[in-house]
Design brief:
The protein is α+β, with helices and mostly antiparallel strands. It has two domains: 69 residues, Winged helix-like DNA-binding domain superfamily/Winged helix DNA-binding domain (Arc Repressor Mutant, subunit A); 161 residues, Chorismate lyase-like (Chorismate lyase), CATH 3.40.1410. 29% of the residues lie in helices and 32% in strands. It is built from eight helices and eleven strands. Strands 4, 5, 6, 7, 8, 9 and 10 form a seven-stranded antiparallel sheet that branches. The chain has a two-stranded antiparallel sheet with strand order 1-2. Strands 3-11 form a two-stranded parallel sheet. A hairpin with a 3-residue loop joins strand 1 and strand 2. It is elongated, with a radius of gyration of 22 Å. The mean pLDDT is 87.
C-alpha cells in the first residue's frame, strides 16, 4: 500500500511541476516497475488510482496520458446569481435534471435556518446539473411549504429556484453566509455522478433571502464534483 501511494505522489508531483504536461504520455508500467523496484501490479493500481482521481486518462493499447485539467469549469462561489445564469453567461451547454422533491423529517438545523415552526413541512428539491451530458453538481434546496404553498405540486418540475422565486413575487435576493467543506460521494451520489468514491466533492452550504422583506426563501446544499471545477471566491 505504501509503495502505491509513493508512486501516486511521485507522479502527481511530476505532473504538477510541468515535467509531464496535458496529453503527454506517462512512463510505461514496466519503466515505473524498474524505477521503484515494485511488482507490476502495484504500478497498475497506482495508475488506476490516478485515473480515479482525474489526473490521467488511458488509451486502449497505447498507455496513460496526462489529463488536461485546465479545461475545468470556472465557478464563482456567490449566491446572488443563479447557477444556470453563471453557466449560460460562460457559454456552457448546461442541462438540469430534477431528481427528487420530497418532504424531510424534522431537522432542527434546517428548520432554524428557514425560521419556521416545527409543525411546518419542509421539502427538499434536488436538481442534477450536467455539462455536455456529464454530471458535475447536484443542488439541493430546502423550501418551507408555509412560504411556497405549491412546492409539493410543482417541485418535480423545477430546474431553477431563482426563476421559481421570481414567479412567486420575490425578485431581488441576498445570499446568506456560506460554509465550505469537503466530503466524498455516498453510494447514491456515485450512482448519479458515475464517479469513483475517491473523487472529493466540494460542499457549499448557503441560503437565499428576499432583499425587500428579509424573509428566508431557501436553505441550499450544493455538491460540486471537484475535478470538474476551478473556483473563485469573491473578495469581501
Amino acid at each position: 500500500m505504501a509503495q502505491k501511494v509513493e508512486i501516486v505522489d511521485w507522479l502527481i508531483a511530476q505532473i504538477a511541476s510541468g515535467e509531464y504536461k496535458a496529453h503527454d504520455k506517462l512512463p510505461s508500467e514496466n519503466k515505473i516497475t524498474d524505477l521503484f523496484k515494485v511488482p507490476r501490479i502495484t504500478v497498475r493500481k497506482a495508475y488506476e488510482r490516478l485515473e480515479e482521481l482525474g489526473f490521467i486518462y488511458k488509451k486502449q493499447g497505447k498507455g496513460s496520458y496526462v489529463k488536461d485539467r485546465s479545461q475545468q469549469i470556472e465557478l464563482v462561489l456567490s449566491g446572488d446569481v443563479s447557477f444556470t445564469q453563471k453557466m449560460e453567461e460562460k457559454g456552457y451547454n448546461l442541462q438540469t435534471k430534477n431528481v427528487f422533491c420530497k418532504p424531510i423529517k424534522y431537522n432542527p438545523k434546517i428548520y432554524d435556518y428557514l425560521e419556521v415552526e416545527a409543525n411546518d413541512v419542509i421539502y427538499k428539491v434536488g436538481r442534477l446539473r450536467l455539462i455536455d451530458h456529464q454530471p458535475i453538481a447536484i443542488h439541493i434546496s430546502y423550501i418551507a411549504k408555509s412560504v411556497f404553498a405549491d412546492i409539493d405540486e410543482v417541485g418535480m418540475e423545477l430546474t431553477s429556484m431563482f426563476h421559481y422565486f421570481q414567479t412567486r413575487g420575490f425578485t431581488e435576493f441576498n445570499s446568506k453566509p456560506s460554509i465550505l467543506s469537503i466530503t466524498f460521494p455516498t453510494k447514491s451520489q456515485r450512482s448519479l455522478f458515475h464517479c469513483s468514491q475517491l473523487i472529493p466533492f466540494l460542499v457549499l452550504e448557503s441560503g437565499c433571502t428576499d432583499k425587500i422583506s428579509g424573509k428566508v426563501l431557501e436553505y441550499r446544499k450544493i455538491y460540486y464534483r471537484s475535478d470538474c471545477f476551478s473556483y473563485t471566491i469573491p473578495s469581501l
